Amino acid sequence: MQFPAGTLPERYKTAAVLLCFWPAGDDRVELVMTRRTDNVSSHQGQVSFPGGRVDDADLSYADAALRETWEELGIASELITIMGRLDDAWSRYGHHVIPYVGWLEQRPPLCPNPREVAEVLIADMATIMRPEAEREHKVVLPRGGNSTHVTKAFEWDGGYVWGLTADLLLELILWIRGEPSNRGHARLERMQKFGV
After folding, report:
1. Structural domain includes residue 1
2. Which residue segment(s) compose the domain that 55 sits in?
């Protein structure tokens, strides 16, 4: 689902991210994420998918996601097959996020950019897709005093994601299972609830 025109404030910048995975032997599939450094402009220290703002020079949103993946992890674009686009998302830091799913035939060499990536996290998809990996994460909202917002989270040995990253991961899991997803509509409802 693409957000209707005019849904987001004009100040929001468009960003593209890539949910990138590959076979890992024994019928396993791995997914790559990064822990952001404290030097980046937003979401410092959080786990995210490679991605960033769309530049004027990018030919498409998918090209922006591929470029950012190269800049952050050193994964060459020609190794990645874009499999599809997930529902649009948004970040409270003022980003309209366009997520893509990418597939590689094998695990690539990873060269994380130390200015942006504090840590590379490789997750086994079968582990993340187990019900026991699902969590709830409470976030204290910056506005509204002591009010909190509950978001989906996933935890596995060596990793924990919540918020936007976990929501995109949930949509990917539904996509893999062939189950219907309401994530785009849920994101629009949350946007209206928080008065973005």
Report:
1. no
2. 13-191
